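ARCHIVE CARD
Drawer: 12
Card no.: 0347
Subject: one protein chain, sequence and derived structure
Cross-reference: see card 0346
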Amino acid sequence: MTKSRLLRSFVNGRALETCPSVPTYELRDAATGAPSRPGFRPSPSSMVDAAVSSAADARGGWASTAPSARSGILRAAAELIRSRAEELARDETRDTGRTLAETRGDAADAAACLHFYAGLAPVAGGSVRDIPGGSWAYTRREPLGTGACIGAWNYPLLGAVWKSAPALATGNAVVFKPSEETPLGALALAEAFLEAGVPPGVFNVILGGAETGRLLVEHPGVDKVSFTGSLETGRQVYASAARGLKRATMELGGKSPLIIFGDANVDHAVSAAMAANWCANGQACSNGTRVFVHDSIKEEFLERLLWRTAQLKIGHPLADDTDIGPMVTAGHRERVRSYINAGVDEGASLLLGSSEPPALDDPSLSGGYFLSPVVFADCTDDMTIVREEIFGMVMSVLSFAKEDEVIARANATEYGLAAGVFTHDLRKAHRVAAALQAGTVWINNYNLAPVEIPWGGYKMSGVGRENGSEAIESWTQVKSVYVEMNDIESPYQ
């Protein structure tokens, strides 16, 4: 790796060099384990200050820009993303290890998200209220100011768009810190925003790890914090935001249930279970890793699941025929392996896969961070693999007999991000969906997150919502203006 290949933070419309004395953060290719990706030097406190100051200087002009003009700029950014979709998808795959089939979808979804909030920008205003006696009032929906946004490593581009699109649509400025493992998506978005006409300073990207994130969240110039990541880190971020009385949106972990009733279409249920567990190589917070299958179809379900999963091709994520790519880092793979071993030790039946890396035909991938999909059966609710978020391809299949029983077991977790229900009985589907303690419930599908609907969790899975019109509310504050139409009757002489 040469110095000329180092990635740089993007502040006030330009790439900034970090002092050469700051150690370089090395990024390795998840498919090969080689240090073939550009690294970066983490942003020091002075660069965090510069980014927040840049946002403060730019946000007033951006907020005063006509909403229709902001809308046009966001649409232009969406079209730039769409025109560069293949390049962005390949960068995303190199960054994360996720397959091209998935990352191509991310680029399309990112463009759709920008178009959605471009449509809301001109109409996300206040309202008029009549007051008894002939007076009236109106409300103004105004931007919060500067947002500190911290993204996760599994969806770098789409996560950055989910946070920045509603923020910019409503006149805010953003300082975005991507995960130190996957910085390319946010930097590409910054370039697209600038080219589309977003003024310098309105969207900034600072590179770094936990210390850079802490400096950003604690900065007195930040008005809102939006964080996506683990529950452990989220607690720290939320506590820091609370000390400054800053607004906060937190999208944290999950241990989501997928409930498959006896009348479900088994083939469709297997498809959903695969999407709920192998998506993002198992590294998605919404994944339905607790799969509750009714006793009457459990054996049929397992037979079809095992056969179809065994046909999946594990390989280089840039190959079009690859179904499963590597874990994001060597350290994360070891974490997932430890959970697989725990499942075996605690008595679950390992039906497919193992904690050992798979043997691949391509010798260049021998140093990559690969694992095979793992299916456990005969699981109990108290097992570690059933209780804790693993963030890997580890499916726990549990059986059930009665509706009220499975609802209680599904809800017996500190998390509440998502859930799924499979049944032909729509009355049952809606009844169970209402009873599940989760921010999103899918009926007869899984792991779809269109921008039109809000996204967020119950319980320890988060605070607030991203996406939908709810995100407009989370990035604005309401001012009430009272207009007196009558003479004032004073109680004083």
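Annotation on reverse: The chain is about 40% helix and 20% strand. The mean pLDDT is 96.
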